[in-house]
Amino acid sequence: MSSARPFGAHMPPAGTGGFDVEAKAEGSHQQLLWSEDPPLSETTFVIVDLETSGTSPGNAAITEIGAVKVRGGEVLGEFASFVHIDSPLPADIVRLTGITDADLRSAPPISEVFPAFHEFARGAVLVAHNARFDMGFLKAACNSLGYEWDFPAPLCTLVLSRRIVPKSDTRSYRLHDLARLFNAETEPNHRALYDARATVDVLHGLIERVGDCGVETLPDLRRFDNRLSPTTRRKASLADGLPQSPGVYIFRDDTGVPLYVGSSINVRNRARSYFSGGDSRSRMRTMVGLAASVEAVECAHDLEAWVREEQLIDSLQPPFNRRSRAPRRGWWVAPGAKGGSLKVERLPFPSAVGPFRTKNEARECATIYGLENWDGLCDGTRLGELENAIESVTNLASEGKFERAARRRDELAPAVAALAGVHSLGPLARCEEIVLAQRLGNTWTFAVIRYGRLAAAGTLPRGADWSTFVSNLQGSATHIPPGDGPFAGATVPGLRLIARWMDMRPTRIVSVTGRWDEPVLGAQRLLEWAETAKDAAREARRTL
């Protein structure tokens, strides 16, 4: 079944249906396709515990690894092994764990145990009680053996328990006390596999406690914060009727005033996360406290959701949004009317470069550009002086003139970034029409771009006929005439969204009407330098 509409048209909610796991058809694939994260019941965890000869990976070693693989409450497998070490165990470690030198004498070395554990845990989320300790030793072993640490961020049941379990419910957050609280079947005893088994029950107990608080996915669990009031957490039900598909969500207060606008490829999951502490910013906590309703605007795919989000923020001006509130704001550099000098203006002229954040930044960049090579700068054919200026930063630094190099770097970075935008985004904005397609699982997603703006969006099952679908999509697309300025009326943030979407996945160009080409030696090849320079400047400001 295909889905297509002009950008801006209303789309009714998609139908839903229940399927057995073994019998999920293409229709259910769409729901899984747009799920940002699988539910916790479908997430594979490997709960791991280590015994070691000391407290630091720098002067101690792993003596035992125990791990349990679980998914959906079911144990899928266990892993346990002593690890041979060359030095004798300290007496206090022997007393604590009961592990002796004799136990380790014939055990395999870490060079054999770690690869086996790595294979056992591959693709899972690692969980540990006081994960910083265990991960420190595992990562040290990984690095020493030349392996790549390819696990996602671990989950720490110590951190989670402090967020979820009130102090009044437990004597402490030690594993032994939490295992007792959650009636763990295995009592922890400072042996790796037994402690890992106990941690499994603690993890499941923690997940059960937050099951009614809007916590459905791993990111929800990571972000959950019990400091939110029960009243706020109960508001998670406001998201129950939202679609599990791409779109925009709008939080409103009890008078219907928009508070906050966001977008997601799974609207319901993302909206629910706010009621479980999914956003730790203080203003978001305030917003959630004021929210009385959440509504959604369904979209065909992520690009349409991003674009719609930007437009709604611009039109509604919700007080808790800070980004995209003024997509056309900025300063521009362009030749004067009589060609005597460059001028700084609020409105972009066809040959302008920008936008710049402040008027002073625009003035500095005008000085860097100069009028003499303006046409060559704009079409990307004469960037030699700009490249020489970048090289001068390196020369100043090599001469030990770091402050001068930093000042010059900070001046050049916005000049390069703005020019790169003209060279890469300008051709996209000036092209009459571009039809793009991306494959996502068993679905093709389509976007019709006209003069740098999304005119239509749609989806089509893989294997279906493109020609009629694309023709209908073009026929129903919003009419967008070219506007003024270097980006033909499109906004730079909107163009960046389209560019970001094209860079996310392999993108097929279905058709192009008009001209769409970028200068081969344009400033976009210098953009990496500019971004690195901006990062360095931000870091310098943080350390002042």
List the topology elements.
Elements: E1 3-6, H1 26-33, E2 44-52, E3 62-71, E4 74-82, H2 91-97, H3 101-105, H4 110-121, E5 125-128, H5 131-144, E6 155-156, H6 157-164, H7 175-181, H8 192-209, H9 218-223, H10 230-234, E7 247-252, E8 258-264, H11 267-273, H12 282-290, E9 293-298, H13 302-316, E10 331-335, E11 342-345, E12 353-356, H14 359-369, H15 374-379, H16 384-398, H17 402-430, E13 433-440, E14 443-450, E15 453-461, H18 466-476, H19 492-504, E16 507-513, H20 527-543
Parallel strand pairs: 2-5, 5-6
Antiparallel strand pairs: 1-15, 2-3, 3-4, 7-8, 7-9, 10-11, 10-12, 13-14, 13-16, 14-15
Keywords:
544 residues; GIY-YIG endonuclease; five-stranded antiparallel beta sheet; five-stranded mixed beta sheet; 16 strands; 41% helix; globular
Descriptive notes:
This protein has 544 residues and is an alpha+beta fold. It folds into three domains: 3-14 and 30-36 and 216-316, GIY-YIG endonuclease, CATH 3.40.1440; 41-209, Ribonuclease H-like superfamily/Ribonuclease H (Nucleotidyltransferase, domain 5, 2-Layer Sandwich); 331-427 and 524-543, no CATH class. The protein contains 20 helices and 16 strands. It has helices spanning 26-33, 91-97, 101-105, 110-121, 131-144, 157-164, 175-181, 192-209, 218-223, 230-234, 267-273, 282-290, 302-316, 359-369, 374-379, 384-398, 402-430, 466-476, 492-504, 527-543, and strands at 3-6, 44-52, 62-71, 74-82, 125-128, 155-156, 247-252, 258-264, 293-298, 331-335, 342-345, 353-356, 433-440, 443-450, 453-461, 507-513. It has a five-stranded antiparallel sheet, sandwiched between helices. The chain has a five-stranded mixed sheet with strand order 4-3-2-5-6, with helices on both faces. Strand 13 and strand 14 form a beta hairpin. The longest helix is centred in the C-terminal third of the chain and has 29 residues, at 402-430. The protein starts with a strand and ends with a helix. The model is unreliable at 7-35 (pLDDT under 50). Residues 1-20 are annotated as: Disordered. This is DEDD exonuclease domain-containing protein. It comes from Dietzia timorensis. One of its GO terms (biological process) is nucleotide-excision repair. InterPro entries: DnaQ, GIY-YIG_endonuc, GIY-YIG_endonuc_sf, GIY-YIG_UvrC_Cho, Ribonucl_H, RNaseH-like_sf, RNaseH_sf, UvrABC_protein_C.
